[in-house]
Amino acid sequence: MNIRVLRGLLGVLALLGVGARGVPLDFNDPAAPEALAAALVEAMTDEQALAQTFMLGWVGAEPSPLILEWIRQRRIGGVKVFGWNTGNTLRLAQTIGAFQKEAVAGGARIPLFVATDQEGGWIRHVKGATSQTPGNMALGASRYVADAYWSGYYIGRELAVLGINMNFAPVVDLYTNRDSALIGPRSFGVNPIHAGMLGAAFMKGQHENGVIATAKHYPGHGDTDLDSHGVLPRMASSFEMLWERELVPYRLMIKEGVPVIMTGHLAFPNTPAGPVPASLSPWFLLEALRKRMGFEGIIITDDLMMNGASRSAGSLSAAAKQALAAGNDIIMFSLTPGLYDPIWTRLAAAMREEPQFRLRVRDAAKRIMKVKLAYLRGQKAVPLIPDIRKVAENIPDKEGTAFFLDMAARSVTIVKGREGLVPLGPERAGDVLLAGQYEEFFRAGKSAYPGALTYRYAASGGADLARAARRADTVIFCLAKSEDLNALRALRALRKRVVVMSVLTPVYLDQVPWVDGAIAVYSYARPSFIAGFSALLGRIPAEGALPFPLDGPRWTAPRD
Question: Which of 187, 299, 311 has the alpha carbon at shortest distance from 249?
Answer without folding.
Answer: 187
